[in-house]
Amino acid sequence: MSIPKLSRRQFLALSAATAGVAALGSRFVPLPQTITPAGAAEPSLSEGQWIPTCCHMCGGTSGILCNVVNGRVAKIKPNTDNPIGLANVSSDYWQHKSEGAAMCPKGNAGIFTLYDPDRVKKPLKRTNPEKGKGVDPKWKEISWDEALDEIAAKLKALRDNGEAHTLLWFTEDSSFTDIQADFCDLYGTPNYSMHSNLCDVSRKAIFKSVMGHDRPLGDTVNSKYILFFGWNPLSATKWSHLPRTITRGIENGARFIVVDPYCSFTASKAHEWIPIKPSTDGAMALAMANVIIESKLYDQKFVDDWAVGFDQFSAYVKDKTPEWAEKITGVPADTIRRIAREFATTKPAIVDAWSGPGQHSNAVQGGRAIAVLAALTGNVDKPGTIMIPNKGGGAHPPIRVKKTDKPRLDGLSKFPMGHSSGVYTEIISRILDGKGPYQPKMAVVMFQNLVLSIPGTNNVIEALKKLDYVVVDDIYLSETAEMADIVLPGSTYLERYEVIGQWVTWPVVSLRQPVVPPIFGQLPEYDVVIQLGKRLGLKDADGAPFFESLKYEDYISKMIQGGSAKITLEELKALPGAVWMDPKGTQYEKHLAEVKPPEGATVDPKTGSVKDKDGKLVGVKVGDKVHKGFATPTGKLEFFSESLASKKDINGNPIDGLPAYTPRDWYPDDKFPLFLINWKESHHTHSRTFNNPYLMEIQNWNRLAINDVTAGKLGIQDGDEIWVESPYGKAKAIARVTQGIHPEVVGWQHGFGHWGFGKVAKGKGTADGQFNVTKSDPISGMALHKEVCVKVYKA
Amino acid sequence: MKPASTKRTDSSDKANLLRKALVTHVVRNVACDNHEIEAARGEKAIVALARANIYNLLASAYAEPPSLQVVRAIADGTLLRAFRDVGLDHVAAELDAFVPGRDAKDLLEEMEIEYTRLFVAPGPDYVPPYQSMYSDELSDGSTALANDGKRLDKRQLWGDSAVAAERMYLEAGLAVTGELREVPDHIGLELQFLQHLCGREAEALNTGRILAAEESVRLQLAFLETQLAPWIDRFCQAVGNAARHPFYRGIANLTLGFVLSDVEELRRQASVIVDGAMGSGDVCSV
Ligand code: SF4
């Protein structure tokens, strides 16, 4: 590089020669006279301000305080005014609040995400029409107005052409969802989908069908026996209070058992780790029920009063002996017998299951078998058991809209326990096979890396290629953004609002608020939606423009006012820690609340269900009292689900009303002899935290865990480069030889293997989704991240 | 620039601390009667304005995608000549070879893509246009290694350099606009800040406010020395290496050459001011 030395004469010549070539409008404004320069900088200089808000490095929303010094976030610490991060039942929270709360590594590393140099800073437009993995989109910066005008024009053209329903909308599921749903309704597409079906909708279906609530939470602090199937809460934190509430439970005397093919961090802290073959947890649970019933260790009175279908269930499990289960699960019959006895005789006890058993084609029935163990032993909604939370939250602001009558592309309604988040795998499959009711044309993807998160990576890439126009809003140039026509710079949680009202057992409303303005002047996602709605002139059912003068602050203020707090946004901001909570705290055994049935109500003699004259369930008669009951169709806990039994799964197969065990569809065979599973740890969320050096410092590679005996047979040593191969993909990995995994199983941490995203994330580890088939479980629509078999050999 | 006159001397024997203020006070009051000084001041103002223009030109090259005017200035030879004038003949030659027969719109899109690849969209050739990515410490001081044994680059946006830059903007009575917000140590903002200061200097000189002009020069030098100069070298080298398009190679060369020359010139001027005011007693050296 030659560096010219310029004289003053040349300054003049250069200035004259280039006059008019470029003129940058001023990016500065004079400070108001009233603020002296010193005054403008000084007050925030030393200690700055502490602003309460909520973390969103994962979906857990732990309460945090942000120290903003000189307009920059300097420090983040836990906010003890917010129970999320400290406790999930109120007595524990109030008693231990002064001890402080916790943040996980991701929460602690949040500042880097805000200031990550690899963030998307300006709207980008693709100029290379060719799309594909690793194909340079040849981005060109465009202004926000150009970007929004172009997207709005595409949307308008689609709508004017009567094709509004061909718009697909994907979003993360714990941020700015309501306003996006409103947009889709007003625009006229039924295809609004959220992340949940990649996460835990099978668990939602399980608990909804058994106990009428889709996200019960364990009161572990007060428990004496904690039994988890396939869950790693001590490391895969979502809500940073999880580890504390469990270890406190252990300190308080709980025995802690973890059933999992992998000796997760959680299993390593348990009294006992029980290795099991993936997807067979339901069989073990049925055998436990067999022992508990045969030995008369179940809670007869509770079952009589509060459950339906017990007789059918006990008849069904009669031959589901521990020996029967041993053959399926690989867990010794004696172990099953012992765990069953311990569980049934130690009170209070918690049994819970998450994504381990939840991401296979038999997830819902297997999970129901686990959930009914709580009903069998009367461990429901009591201190120290699995709890039905009282959600506080915000209410969706009222909107009058006539929804489109076009069907969804994913056929969600055909999933008997499908979740409102839709079915991503079906969307991808329909785009590819063209067998849907129509071909979608356009997609808006908010804060989602579909390519690395939907099973069957290549299918996702091919599907995205088939769409005419793809908009991605993200803070990184993710592998999905690589497929976009326009990328909008997303906001981080430290730059935007959210109302939070779940994750603990009593009504608590907390606020996420911008602690600094969006650092590149970008629009937060909700404002993008508002701007698009405005440009399209979307109107509600009464013909009133909905987005025209809408401010997101007003929108969420209405949400807060409509929820249990009944206060405004400003009032919430003013509360300590920006948190409102119900002083009544956690309520147990809410099903016992007595209700007065309306005139003309009738009682079902078999179940005790009390229905009003329109057939709506209004309570449950137990003895001579009518109680509120559970939110199931019968008002009771359901060993047998009449409603499920009346339906067919997505493949047209009838569903058993009992939690019957069937093996999952895809089992290891000679060609692909090993189960492949995946998991998460405290230092990463989904696939989205992998450009954070503070987190990559903890773990920057997902080596494939393989049992030492299996490795020995295959001639693989720790640290060897190996091939992992399934019918759908083949890639290199590095072996981690360990005794901490079932011999028939290999597994690794999810989220690695980026080829885009950012310089820190890129090229680290192996992406797991490429080995999978693009399928969901046939009842809930849960993506099958763990139903995959592989062979492994030395590279 | 050489001081306009070195003939007159100040015979008074006041304390050095008071001298500078007094001198400028005298100059301010007598200047309008003195054609020589006025002419010198006028010339200084012209130079300051020229510098403001160049800072604006450079700022615009980094702060926003290229415009059609830039493409035209390439096509019609304006920029070629400008590069030649400052001794960047090889850049001019490259640019010359690049242009002929090209459609202006194609050329514009090509340059927009190049601009975005270099300064906006993180990727293999991204040259982050933020001072913190050059001036700040590579790591947080932790000795922890990632589990591949490597130290990770933990530099982040809005580091100490950004805070320091913003502080100087505020001290100068300027704030980054909310509408076109950027992180304060973006190269475009730092260059444009200097444009503002040079503009102020010119305006002060033109309205006879010598103290204000001097204050602006002092700020320019301080900002250049503490903010822009320490990283401009590495930044421009990186752009020079990553740029595929001769325009951005040329701009990088020009930026580095101009900024370093300007610092040198300002230093020389400052030493003259200090000498004149505090030492030799040369009243007209301003
Ligand atoms: S669990 Fe960690 S990342 Fe998730 S919200 Fe809590 S502190 Fe943040």
List the main descriptive attributes of the protein structure presented here.
heterodimer; A: 795 residues; alpha/beta; Rossmann fold; 7-stranded mixed β-sheet; 6-stranded mixed beta barrel; B: 286 residues; 11 helices; globular; disordered C terminus; binds iron/sulfur cluster
Task: Kindly report the CATH topology of the largest domain in chain A.
Answer: Rossmann fold
β-strand amount of chain A: 15-25%
Oligomeric nature of the chains: heterodimer
The count of strands of chain A amounts to 32
Highest-level CATH class of chain B? Mainly Alpha
What does it look like?
The complex is a heterodimer of chains A (795) and B (286). Chain A is an alpha/beta fold and 795 residues long. Chain A is built from 26 helices and 32 strands. In chain A, the strands form 8 sheets. A 7-stranded mixed sheet of chain A has the order 6-5-18-17-16-7-8, covered by helices on one side. In chain A, helix 7 runs parallel beside helix 21 (525-536), helix 8 (201-211) crosses helix 17 (363-376) and helix 11 (281-294) packs antiparallel against helix 14 (322-329). The radius of gyration of chain A is 28 Å and the shape is globular. With 286 residues, chain B is mostly helical. Chain B is 66% helix and 1% strand. Chain B contains 11 helices and 1 strand. In chain B, helix 3 packs across helix 6, helix 5 packs antiparallel against helix 11 (246-280) and helix 9 runs antiparallel to helix 10. The radius of gyration of chain B is 22 Å and the shape is globular. Mean pLDDT of chain B is 82; it is low at 1-32 and 276-286. Classes of the chains: A alpha/beta (795), B mainly alpha (286). At the A-B interface, helix 1, strand 1, helix 2, strand 6 and helix 25 of A face helix 2, helix 3, helix 4, helix 6 and helix 8 of B. Iron/sulfur cluster is lined by residues 55, 57-58, 60-62, 103-104, 106-107, 237-240 of chain A.
